[in-house]
Design a protein that fits this description.
Layout: H1 3-19, H2 26-33, H3 37-43, H4 47-68, H5 78-94, H6 97-105, H7 110-135, H8 140-165, H9 170-188
Helix pairs in contact: 1-2, 1-4, 4-5, 5-9, 7-8, 8-9
Length: about 190
Amino acid sequence: MNERKRQVINHAKRLFLEKGYRNTSIQDILEDSNISRGTFYNYFPSKGELFKAVYDSVLEEHHARRDELLIGHDLGDIEVFIAQLKLHMTTSFHNRFFVLIDDVMSSNEQDVKDFIKQTRWLYINWLRNRLADVFGEGKKPYLLDCSIILGSLLHHYVYFYVAAKGDEKIDEVIRYCLECVKTILNDVS
């Protein structure tokens, strides 16, 4: 990717996080990035495609940082999994991605909403695989349900609890959510 396109993505990311997706116009992006309309459309066919590029760049960086936490550790180490979850939650919270995603999901742009749904599925699938690493392959028949429950618990706890009380309690929240899922997993299996 050329440097100018990367700069447009970075400017758009900042604008989306500051103003929201729906309240950021293409004109805002043009002015903030100091590019022409033609240059914008040369890079991105729409604001929705730019959002996807922004989100992909954030995910790429996040996944690299998340995977670095595994280096030199056992996949089954629950503390590494907790560290990965903490990274995900704190990144999402501090970057206000929960709010941004809610804004995108309330837009009328079905292709962008479908993109978000796909990234959510990929996250749930990652959770399912990590739960299998931690709790064993024998639990696999129950792990999709547990990953959906864990993802939902974490999302809502961070969205409401951490937003109200601050993120210094995020370790407790993650451990509590994992204990809930562990109890459910033991009961159903």
